[in-house]
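Give me structure tokens for this 132-residue protein.
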Amino acid sequence: MAEVSSGSRPALVQELLEPGSIHTSPGGQYSYRVLGPCCRLFDREELPWPCCRLAWRSKEPSWRRIGRRFVADLAARRCPSYAVELLQPGSRPTRTILTLFAQRLDRELQEWWYSKRHEKAADTAAALAEEV
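Here you go.
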């Protein structure tokens, strides 16, 4: 599954974790059941709104949200993200998204996971749906 490289480089991921498989966290504090791979998105609506005026060299930032609301999170783009169910002793399972930052996707898997071609196809499909 993960190929460990020499030095301090993170492990290179070449295969997805199987849905339904159970793994322990890197620190061993909890375990999780993989529900499936997912794309971690950044919600542009969660950006902070300005609370005071600042000098911006005769320009102020545009707070109008132009473009897509959800965009791929650049911080997690090179790492695998999974929808998981946290299994903690003594509590109910909690569903969340877990990004494994200690691992890196190989080029082919990263292309599949965060492909610009898929984004363009989604934009085209959304534009066609709005026209109808």
